[in-house]
What does this fold into?
Amino acid sequence: MAPEAPQGAVFGTAVSTDGSLIAVGAPYAPKSPSQPGTGAVYLFQRGTETNSSGGNVWTHIQAFYPSYDQELHAFGSQVAIDGWRIVTLEQNAPVIFHKDYGSWSRDMFSLPGPVKPLPSPRHMIALRWPNLLIASPETDVGDVGKAGVIYYATNWQLLP
It folds into this structure.
């Protein structure tokens, strides 16, 4: 299972599954030929057909890209899925893609500062709708460097 991603896209850096859906991050995939390395998250769905090995066929059904055009920000280096909701990190904020009434929407919300730049390979996200956890182990807490914090949000509202 892989979309048509060029060499160096690093497809599979992050993987999350929920039932018949798999979200796969590729933090250096191009948004377009003129925008290399912006990152992507690919969504696959397991079908009822079987392949020659007897396994189910996975179909690429959607690709998600960052809203910016700068490369090397590692969009897709973390991903979490729960039903038709997918979360990844874009620059300094989580971005949530959700499917309602047949079309995909995109929402972002800000984390309280100061937060180490997101995404980072050390950040982790977990999603069990309506709860979202974001671990930021390199964030300073007061005068303590890299003490780390975990942000908790529910229903897209950040809680203390």
Remarks:
- The mean pLDDT is 82.
